[in-house]
Write a structure and sequence with these properties.
413 residues, alpha/beta, Inosine-uridine Nucleoside N-ribohydrolase, Chain A, 2 domains, nine-stranded mixed sheet, binds calcium ion
């Protein structure tokens, strides 16, 4: 707009200058009067009119061209810039189901500081710590982030069919790396967590992304209570499982091992499910150097995260590992920015029996099985049958991209 005004001013000035020149010069008086009044000109002024008119029209063309060029030069880059910048994207509506837990705390604070996400609820499940301690920690975390507006609800008190296994061994006696947190200013939502999940999904059909970063008990209970939520969920992105060895034993990852029956219900429900497993989390470590970078900035959340990560990096070092695996934060990171993980579609089942494999996420890497048919008292392989993938399995991560994302969101908060 300023350029258009400038062009208009140039045009006006040129005209004024030329007509003013006629006024102030020695031209016959009737030229100005007749030109302005549109009257027929005398023979004496006709030649002047022709030459003046042609010069004026020349200036008109010239100044119009200048104005148009200036206007276009201002418009084109702005138009190109508008075409290059992505249109604003509405934040993803997420429910975080969590057992906080150190890495849960990091994941929750990452989510709460990311404009790409709108955290609609935090539901608490027992796992890393008891349901009661997990609830207290979740309330302290939302309070630390000054987000008492987010509903925090308690759900299951134990796994579906087995005893609860807690992990203070890794997460500290308080589940928060033994870091003292300020008392919460927030209050619990009195609804049962699976009901919060069900109600939130029905209130926003096809919009909710479930982000379970603990055992899958609450999610399974929600599906069992109201299976109609399944097609109404946008997607499910879990931290859990592994297709290349476990972190509990040879094959099982802790969240799945914590409630395999619940996990099998969630894996077979039929919704779009992405699995960010412990194997990929372990290939996405947060190192002492990165903690040092985060320690240079300050704020209540920044300082808390630095303390937790300092504890976790030291703990990993004790067991000979450089850097702490960003299990739960990577799953949240994959919701914020899907580019941080590489996924492949696979058919995955959760082993609920097995002498050595209970809790394993058994992934068919080639999505095919042999068809065996009885023949001559034995089984013959007759064909290869395709199986349908039910999970997008994370098989790799961009650790650098993720750590940059994480640090940038926590710095100074
Ligand atoms: Ca967790």
């Amino acid at each position: 707009m300023p350029i258009l005004l400038l062009g208009g001013w140039v045009l006006y000035s040129v005209l004024k200058l030329r007509l003013g020149g006629i006024d102030s010069g020695s031209r016959p008086k009737d030229f100005r009067e007749n030109f302005v009044a549109g009257k027929p000109l005398t023979a004496a002024t006709r030649n002047i009119r022709v030459s003046r008119a042609s010069r004026i029209s020349g200036f008109l063309v010239l100044s119009s061209t200048i104005a148009a060029t200036l206007a276009l030069s201002a418009f084109i880059p702005r138009h190109a810039a508008a075409a290059n910048s992505a249109p604003p994207v509405a934040p993803k509506q997420v429910i975080i189901d969590t057992d906080p837990g150190t890495d849960d705390a990091l994941a929750i604070l990452l989510a709460l500081n990311s404009p790409e996400l709108n955290v609609r609820a935090i539901t608490v499940v027992p796992g890393n710590v008891t349901a009661q301690l997990g609830l207290e920690n979740a309330l302290k975390l939302v309070s630390l982030a000054k987000r008492c507006d987010i509903p925090v609800a308690a759900g299951a008190q134990h796994p579906l069919f087995q005893k609860l296994i807690t992990a203070e061994f890794w997460h500290g006696a308080n589940g928060m790396a033994n870091v003292e947190m300020p008392p919460t200013q927030c209050t619990v939502d009195n609804r049962w967590a699976p009901d919060v999940i069900i109600q939130t999904i029905h209130a926003a059909p096809h919009e909710i992304t479930l982000v379970p970063i603990g055992p899958l008990t609450n999610i399974a209970l929600a599906v069992l209570k109201d299976p109609t939520i399944v097609p109404l969920v946008k997607e499910v992105v879990i931290m859990g499982g592994s297709i290349s060895g476990g972190n509990v034993n040879a094959v099982a990852e802790a969240n799945i091992y914590g409630d395999p029956e619940a996990a099998q219900i969630v894996f077979q429900a039929g919704w779009r499910l992405t699995m960010v497993g412990s194997d990929v989390g372990e290939r996405t470590p947060f190192t002492g150097k990165q903690v040092e970078e985060l320690s240079k900035t300050h704020g209540p959340e920044n300082d808390f995260v630095t303390s937790v990560l300092t504890y976790l990096v030291a703990l990993s070092k004790k067991y000979g590992v450089d850097g702490t695996a960003m299990y739960d934060p990577l799953a949240v990171g994959a919701v914020i920015d899907p580019e941080v993980v590489e996924t492949k579609p696979m058919q995955v089942s959760v082993e609920t029996r097995g002498d050595f494999t209970r809790g394993e996420t058994v992934a068919n890497r080639r999505n095919a099985v042999e068809r065996n048919v009885p023949h001559d008292g034995r089984l013959w392989i007759e064909a290869l049958d395709e199986v349908k993938p039910n999970v997008q399995v994370a098989v790799g991560s961009n650790a650098e991209r993720f750590s940059r994302l994480f640090i940038s969101r926590i710095q100074g908060k």
